[in-house]
Metalloregulator ArsR/SmtB family transcription factor
Amino acid sequence: MRGATQISLQPAFRALADPTRRQILNTLGQREMSLREVTAEFSMTRAAVRKHLDILEEGGLIHMRRQGRETLSALNANGLKPVFDWLGTFDQFWDDKLEQLKTAIETENDDD
């Protein structure tokens, strides 16, 4: 099961690894946009934007749909949930570290 989770997360992490794709996600989080509209937001070719959108779609982070002659893209917030859940496995690590820091500060203050 653990291996299957890692495999399914790989496309999402690949998509999120690129800063341009993260910016595109932020842009699509505001509203659904056509390829032309997304391209107008970035200083790159239409083909380059299309490649980024394809990778985001493969990662499950956006939905793409045809409307007439245009392809519209929108954020798929549910696609981020597996990433969020995986990152949440590290919450206990930080909770423990912060508790240790709190204890150390309180101990130091008690010594004064």
